[in-house]
Input
Amino acid sequence: MFTFFKKKPPPELPRMSLDPVPVVEAVEPPAPPAPVPATPPVAPPVAAAPATSAGPVEQPRDGWVERLRSGLRRTGTSLTSVFVGARIDDALYDELEAALLMADAGVKATEFLLDDLKQRVKWARVVDPAAVRLLLIDAVAELLKPLQKPLVVGEHTPTVMMVVGVNGAGKTTSIGKLTRHLAQADQRVLLAAADTFRAAAREQLAVWAGRNNVEIVSQEGADPAAVTFDAVVAGRARGHDVVIADTAGRLPTQLHLMEELKKIKRTIGKAMEGAPHEILLVVDGNTGQNALAQVRAFHDALQLTGLVVTKLDGTAKGGVLAALARERPVPVYFIGVGEKLEDLETFDAREFAQALLS
Ligand SMILES: Nc1nc2c(ncn2[C@@H]2O[C@H](COP(=O)(O)OP(=O)(O)OP(=O)(O)O)[C@@H](O)[C@H]2O)c(=O)[nH]1
Ligand SMILES: [Mg+2]
Output
């Protein structure tokens, strides 16, 4: 599976997308020369992949499937062991039920998957438990499919994103990785250090900005909404393609801090009508069923447009995505399986199902 970034469209095409669709579906418009920004950038954008084509740019996902698979190994092993040397009987389904619950799929998704799988087994008339595993991959892929949605960038200039989540979920790191994706797709990114709570937070974002060679708006002791406002205004003036605001971690129960996020959102709207265009919740994949509660709470406060699910390596149990799909289907734009720059990729339902059950 590949990821494609459609580069900045010529005038007649309305949008660019960061899009996990197969290349055969992408229509290649004639390739005009890449537009040169009129304003002199303070820091030049990262040298990007082929800049002359207006068509989709293939982003190689070198080793991604392997990293995803090894990240999900714990969950995968307990799920796939169900099919080893077994017969297709009630005991197998009971064992699978337990394994799905253990994998954080939650009661609703587990019930749904088991019913669906039994139907598939009946229709396909399979007798080999190993074939049941393949049918479960189909069932999981289909369940997760509604979560697979491209993050569209380019409908607005700049596209303004606000990144929120509980403490330590992986917001700042994910912004760094996402910035790399965007910079590689020749997008001019401006970061806003709206986590003004800790000096270290601003520095951490500045390090990511440096690594990706993009600009950052940061101000010591400032109000987070004011920093974000300045960044959006600067992004518009300097012709940035994307502005991403990092915010301080908070629990949804900290109501005054949730109000602060609402204020940041309102302020972005004042700096640019219709913005923010994306409000991304970063969820730590290790939080299991608590992830659902986080999605609910942040969505009620801010109307989320997408999720980034991090830390699917380590002890995370990938089943949480099944629970999300069944109970709170907010698009999962990206998943993270490690701390390095290349450890964040677009979410692909079938790839994920295969990695989970390989
Ligand atoms: N293993 C693993 N670690 C991750 C991943 N994403 C982030 N981390 C680590 O999680 C820790 C917290 O990440 P941050 O990006 O600082 O989290 P944050 O949400 O910005 O944290 P606050 O700003 O303090 O709320 C860091 O040590 C990251 O390296 C991931 O996908 N896998
Ligand atoms: Mg942070």
